[in-house]
Amino acid sequence: MTGIVVNRVVDWQDTDAAGHYHHGTVVRWVEAAEAALLESLGLRGLFGGIPRVRYEVDYLERLWFGDTAAVDLTVGAVGRSSVRYDFVIRRIPAETRTHAAEPPAIAARGSLTAVHAPDAAGGSRPWPASIADALRDGLPIDSEPTSTQ
Questions:
Q1: Beta carbons within 10 angstroms of residue 107's beta carbon
Q2: Which residues are within 8 A (CB) of 59 and not within 5 positions of it... i.e. 6 or more apart?
Q3: pTM listed for this prediction
Q4: If you count DSSP H runs as helices and E runs as strands, how many of each does the chain have, helices first?
Q5: Helices assigned H by DSSP within the chain
Q6: What DSSP line would sit under 16-29, residue for residue?
Q7: CA–CA gap between residue 25 and residue 108 (Å, rounded)
Q8: Predicted pLDDT of residue 107
């Protein structure tokens, strides 16, 4: 299965008034992992042509300022014109916190679905075979695709 793990330190602006991460932070982390994955597959040209159509997340554990969020993103399914990413975010406690000896805990999990829509006015379009194969198999493509494919 195609995937990537990206670590992000929970920064002050990632937290809310309760002192733990804000729910909207998760989508930014997931999109950062997606960007790293697409870059590793040679699919940077897709940016701007794969709008989100569904986002679902279960919040299971708090992440605190200074903790590390390990974002594990995998390609869950590749459809005719869609891709579903599945993600698990694990909390790695900061060494300065009293619970730092705790093992990583699942803080959030969910999925994000995007569609291939290279022309904003034209709706979704089927994936070119090379892109679908790269997403499914995790093998970089030979040439950089453009969002208008």
A1: 24
A2: 23, 26, 107, 108
A3: 0.86
A4: 2, 5
A5: 23-40, 129-137
A6: -TTSBB-HHHHHHH
A7: 11
A8: 95
Q: For 23-65, what is each residue's pLDDT tens digit? A: 899 999 999 999 999 999 999 999 889 999 999 999 999 999 9
Is the Cα dihedral 30, 31, 36, 39 positive or negative?
positive
Q: Which two tokens stand for residue 60?
A: 């299971």
Under DSSP, the state recorded for 141 is P
Q: Are 42 and 144 in contact (CB under 8 A)?
A: yes
DSSP string spanning 97-119? STTTTSPPEEEEEEEEEEE--SS
Stretch 73-77: mean pLDDT: 97
Residue whose structure tokens are 């709706």 = 123
Dist CA 72 CA 5 (whole Å): 4
Q: In the β-sheet with 68-78, what is the strand arrangement from edge to edge? A: 3-9, 68-78, 82-92, 105-115, 52-59
Q: In 10 A of CB 147, how many CB atoms?
A: 16
* Cβ–Cβ < 8 Å for 76, 85: yes
